[in-house]
Write a structure and sequence with these properties.
single chain; alpha+beta; two-stranded antiparallel ribbon; two-stranded antiparallel sheet; 10% strand; globular
Length: 138
């Protein structure tokens, strides 16, 4: 626990265990090596944060979100953001600088949290960018 500017101590956040991509040129295929256990630190950190929010606000978990009457689940996906930020790593339409025909069309384009669930922003960027790529690059 580390002290924070809020009420009470704050947990140190776990560093997630990263998956690994490998490319098989013979099959022209990209594979992700990832196990459910690798998500455990992130899931525990998310649950810990929500536990703190609930405790601070006198709230509780909803039991209708994840199905099966569960208050929390580990079979969902976070929205990792950043890593290939629009207009830094890519041009304004997700084309990676210096790598022809390599495009980024996911949350990596978004530099940080927009303050709400980013799936609509990510989807809108992907649709906008792919329309430009199809019109300009093919």
């Amino acid at each position: 626990m580390v002290p924070g500017p809020h009420r009470g101590p704050r947990r140190r956040r776990a560093v997630p265990n990263r998956g690994r991509f490998t490319y098989d040129p013979a099959a022209d295929r990209l594979d992700l090596q990832w196990t459910r256990a690798q998500a455990a630190p992130s899931v525990a950190a998310a649950k810990g944060l929500l536990d703190e929010v609930n405790a601070a606000n006198g709230t509780t978990y909803r039991y209708d979100v994840f199905g099966g009457g569960r208050a929390f689940a580990d079979d969902f996906c976070y929205h990792p953001l950043g890593g290939a930020v629009l207009d830094r790593v890519t041009d304004g339409h997700g084309r990676v600088h210096g790598y022809p025909n390599l495009y980024v069309t996911d949350g990596a384009l978004v530099p940080g949290s927009p303050g709400v669930n980013p799936f609509v922003t990510i989807t809108a960027l992907a649709e906008r960018n792919i329309a430009h790529v199809l019109a300009d690059d093919l």
